Amino acid sequence: MKNYILHQLLTWIDRICGSTGIKQFRSVDGSGSFRVQICAHVRPSCLLLLSAAPPPPEHRLQVHLEALQCHFTWDLDSSRSRLLRLCDNLTDIGSEEGYVWLGHIYNLQGFIHHRLGDCDHALAAETFRQTRTSDSDEGPWLVVNYGNLAWLYHHLGDRAQSESYLSKVDSLKAKYPRPSQDRLHPEVGAEKAWTLMKFSKDKKLLAVDLFEEAVTVEPDRAEWCTSQVLALASAHKHSDAALDDDILDKMKMAKEQDPENLYLAVLYLSQRAKKEEDVKDEARELAAKILLNPVGSYSGIKAVLRLYRRCVSDDEAIDLAEEALRKHPDNRYLKRCAALCYKWKIMSHKGGIVDQSTIDRGVGLLTEVIHLYPDSSLVKELDLADVYAKSNHSVPEADRIYKNLLQNVGSLEPVDKQMLYHHYAKYLFFDREQNGKSITYLMKAAAIPLESFYRRDSIKNLEKIRGRCRNKRCKEIEEFLDRLPEL
Q1: What is the CATH number of the domain that holds 73?
Q2: Where are the alpha helices (DSSP H) in 198-300?
Q3: I need a surface site. Which of 150, 171, 295, 308 has the fewest CB within 10 A?
Q4: What whole-number distance in Å separates Cα of residue 362 and Cα of residue 344?
Q5: Which of 177, 202, 220 finishes a domain?
């Protein structure tokens, strides 16, 4: 084919310049490309230089990197605050030896560290992933890890190391080919799916499809079947309604295939509770089993505390959290869960004043949690302000927290500004009875062009106020809502 194309080019040049005008041709071949150069005397108007030279090495390297399947090519862009929270969440999963997702955790941690500008920790996390794998364990599950390392060394300017890991990826892909050209290798697809579950709803739904592809190839991988169901449930987790029957059937089948997964068992029980089934006794039995297992965010402890709140009581949820803390008094994730239970109890209390000892315990736990999660503490600072607001003696403390947060609002990303403005608007309305100022902050939250619960709820509340037509700012609200763009 190359000789044919060269012949055609020479014929075309000959027609333009004339056979007597060209003394000599030389072809130079490189990397599947060639160039034709006129090297003899021809009329100046007919001098041609036709070139299809090989791309420079840097370009070839970039193309090779962009073709990888790894975190750097999976479109995982997210806000800095979201990445910091995710980093904490990954730490809270735990790192028990033999844990099925441990390699995935290290890979994602390395990517997040890089995105946050910490290449040293990124490299340490990715390399530590390899220390947990012996030479005899090398397989397709390392494709993502090697791909990440190729990108990391590329960003560090170490081309030799980058190309070394690209070579390792190519070797693994040759040894363990994908089932078809339009599908990922199941190990790679499952890791991509697990990773996407940690991001937006759209990515969670894509994760469901990727797990489906992986399970089709290896149907006996119980953790993949379970994770597919968890991704489905996570995409609908903010709904009070039970999941569709077909999803519940998949959840039941996954539970039977993965009976040791107590987190899945709690979620299935929670769905039954949403259908008004009495699951109190089963919830208590599950809670007892969970307390015997290692602590982590995948253990099911937070999910069972939520289930207690729904179908047992806030008080029993607090008792369960305190029992877990007695077994593991230094575990920060359990402290976070216990603080959440106290917040539920205090914020849902109706009639009269909440017992001060309950508020004090809640304040103490929340204060400690804020210090334990310094990079992702905004939500807990807002929780602390809300808890203070329910105490007769601590409203000034709530004011102080909001004042400090609002003074530093310029350093927050849009999603966090929106959350802060929304919380403050609610605080002003319910706890300070400053309706006019509350409206101002509802507008601030709604004005941020970012689709979220906080924006939707702010708009909903503004529409309610406008609909009542009893507030002097109704016309202003109406004009504001009319100008508000749809997202």
Answers
A1: 1.25.40.10
A2: 201-217, 222-235, 245-257, 262-274, 280-290
A3: 171
A4: 10
A5: 177
Kind of pairing between the strands at 25-30 and 49-52: unpaired
Q: Is residue 50 assigned to a domain?
A: yes
Domain count, the chain: 2
- Which amino acid would we find at residue 172? L
Give the pLDDT of residue 390: 86
C-alpha dist (Å) from residue 73 to 38, 68, 348, 394, 436:
42, 7, 44, 49, 47
Which DSSP category does 140 fall into? G
Strand partners, 52: 34
Let me know whether 127 and 82 are in one domain: yes
User: What is the enclosing helix (H) or strand (E) of 113?
Assistant: helix 102-115
Helix, strand or coil for residue 299?
coil
pLDDT in tens, 290-328: 999 999 999 999 999 999 999 999 999 999 999 999 999
Average pLDDT over residues 199-206: 88
**Strand partners for 38:** 25
Among 409, 420, 410, smallest CA distance to 386 is for 420
What are the counts of helices (DSSP H) followed by strands (DSSP E) for the chain?
23, 3
Tokens of 184: 């990922």
Nearest 5 degrees, angle CA 225-CA 230-CA 236? Answer: 140
Q: What is the pTM of this model?
A: 0.84
Residues 146 and 92 in one domain: yes
N residues, the chain: 487
Sheet containing 33-38, strands listed edge to edge, beginning at the edge strand earlier in sequence: 25-30, 33-38, 49-52
Domain ranges, residue 168: 63-177
Based on the domain organization, do 73 and 166 belong to the same domain?
yes
- Based on the fold, state whether residues 88 and 114 are members of the same structural domain: yes
The answer on 11 and 104 residing in a single domain is no
Calculate the average pLDDT of the chain: 86
Report the distance separating Cα 474 and Cα 472, nearest Å: 6
Of 76, 79, 77, the C-alpha closest to 413 is: 79
Q: How many other C-beta atoms can be found within 10 angstroms of the C-beta atom of residue 253?
A: 12
Mean pLDDT (whole number) for 391-420? 93
Q: Which amino acid is at 431?
A: D
Please classify residue 57 by burial: count the beta carbons closer than 10 Å to its beta carbon, then call 0-12 exposed, 13-18 middle and 19+ buried. Answer: exposed
Cβ-contact 391, 356 below 8 angstroms: yes
How many Cβ atoms are within 10 Å of 141's Cβ, its own excluded? Answer: 21
* Helices 262-274, 301-311: crossing angle, 10 deg rounding: 20
